[in-house]
Write a structure and sequence with these properties.
Layout (H helix, E strand, L loop, with lengths): L9 H22 L8 H11 L3 E4 L4 E6 L1 E9 L2 E5 L7 H11 L4 E5 L5 H4 L2 H6 L3 E5 H7 L3 E3 L4 E3 L10 E3 L2 E6 L2 E7 L9 E5 L4 E9 L14 H13 L6 E6 L5 H23 L4 H6 L7 H4 L6 H11 L1
Parallel strand pairs: 4-5, 5-6, 6-9, 13-14
Antiparallel strand pairs: 1-2, 2-3, 3-4, 7-8, 10-11, 11-12, 12-13
Helix pairs in contact: 1-2, 7-8
C-alpha cells in the first residue's frame, strides 16, 4: 500500500501544483493540435506571478520552498543561505518575503539542478542579492545560449550574464556550508542531459530535482538530451541513495520518501515496457495512446500536470 509519512496539506498541494498545471493544459493542447496564442511558458509565468509561496521546515535548518516553479531547498545558518534552484523570476516579490521568513540571512550560494526556466529564471536577481551560482558544465552551456523547445514551441533566451553560473563542475561537487558537507552528483542523461542531485548528509535530505515528480508523470526533455531509459536509471539511483529515514525533495510535488521513489521507478519501468511492446508491434502513436498503457498508474500519477496520454507520447518518442 502506497503511503506518505510526511504531513502534507492537499489544498496547498493543489495551489502549488497550479503553476505548472495551467501551462501543462496549454502544453497538451499544443501537442494534440489545439494551438493557443498564449502558450504554456507564458501561462506558467502568469500563474507564478501570483502563486502563493509555501515554506515547509524539514530538519537540520533545511526548508523546502514551493510555489515558484520547481521546489527550492534552503539551507539556513550563520554562513547565510544556500539554495538549490531559483524558481521563476516573476515570483521574486513573493519569494523574497518567504525567504526572509526563514531568516534575515543573505543568499550566499545558489546551486542549479538543471537548466529549465522554472528552476533557473530567478538566477539573475539572486546573484544580484549576493549569491554565487554553481551548476554542472552542461547546465551552464544551456543557460548561455538560445534553446528551442519543440514540445513547448518556445525559444528560451540565454540568461543575462548575472544569471550565468560562475562555478561549474563536470561530475561531482562538494561544499562545506552551515555545518553540512553538501554533496552534488550528476546523473547520466535523464530529465535533461544535465541533471544533478544535491545531498545534505547530516540532515539526510536528498534533492533530486526533476528526476522525480512526486505523484506526477514527469516531463522528459528530449530536445536537450533527456531519455526515458535515463529517467529509469536515475530513479533507480535515487532509490539506492536513500533509506527509509531520508527526506526526498522532488522537482515537483510533495515532500517525498524512499517508498515513493520506488513507486515512481516502478511506474516508469512498467509504462516504458508497455509502450515499447506496443510500438514494436508496429502500432502508431494514436493506437498506442488508445491502448492506454498507463491505465494502472493514472489514478495516482495522472491527476495534475501530465495526463497518461501525453506521458505515453513522451515514452513512445524515446523507445
Amino acid at each position: 500500500m502506497y503511503t506518505n509519512n510526511n504531513q502534507f496539506n492537499r489544498r496547498r498541494f493543489l495551489t502549488t501544483a497550479g503553476v505548472l498545471a495551467v501551462g501543462a493544459l496549454a502544453f497538451r493542447k499544443h501537442l494534440f493540435g489545439q494551438v493557443k496564442a498564449d502558450g504554456p511558458v507564458q501561462q506558467i509565468n502568469k500563474a507564478a506571478a501570483t502563486a502563493k509561496i509555501n515554506v515547509t521546515r524539514l530538519r537540520g535548518n533545511i526548508s523546502m520552498v514551493e510555489g515558484s516553479g520547481g521546489n527550492i531547498a534552503v539551507l539556513n545558518g550563520p554562513d547565510g543561505k544556500l539554495l538549490v534552484d531559483a524558481g521563476i523570476n516573476v515570483s521574486k516579490q513573493h519569494l523574497i518575503p518567504a525567504l526572509h521568513a526563514i531568516s534575515d540571512k543573505p543568499i550566499k550560494i545558489l546551486i542549479n539542478s538543471h537548466w529549465h526556466f522554472d528552476h533557473t529564471s530567478g538566477n539573475a536577481w539572486m546573484h544580484e542579492a549576493g549569491a554565487t551560482i554553481i551548476s554542472q558544465d552542461v547546465t551552464r552551456a544551456w543557460l548561455s545560449k538560445k534553446v528551442y523547445q519543440p514540445e513547448w514551441d518556445y525559444t528560451f533566451d540565454p540568461l543575462p550574464k548575472e544569471g550565468i553560473p560562475s562555478i561549474v563542475y563536470k561530475d561531482t561537487f562538494t561544499k562545506d556550508f552551515n555545518g553540512e558537507s553538501i554533496q552534488v552528483k550528476t546523473y547520466k542523461p535523464a530529465h535533461t542531459d544535465g541533471d544533478s542531485s544535491i545531498y545534505f548528509p547530516k540532515a539526510d535530505i536528498l534533492h533530486v530535482a526533476d528526476t522525480f515528480w512526486n505523484a506526477y508523470y514527469p516531463f522528459i526533455d528530449y530536445a536537450t538530451g533527456g531519455s526515458i531509459d535515463g529517467m529509469i536509471a536515475a530513479a533507480d539511483l535515487n532509490v539506492k541513495q536513500t533509506t527509509r529515514h531520508t527526506i526526498v525533495i522532488p522537482g515537483h510535488g510533495a515532500i517525498g520518501n524512499r517508498e515513493q521513489l520506488i513507486r515512481f521507478h516502478d511506474m516508469l519501468a512498467t509504462v516504458r515496457d508497455n509502450v515499447a511492446r506496443l510500438k514494436k508491434q508496429g502500432r502508431t502513436l494514436p493506437e498506442v495512446i488508445a491502448a492506454k498503457p498507463t491505465a494502472a498508474f493514472d489514478p495516482l500519477f495522472g491527476n495534475y500536470v501530465i495526463k497518461g496520454d501525453f506521458f505515453t507520447k513522451l515514452v513512445y518518442t524515446g523507445v
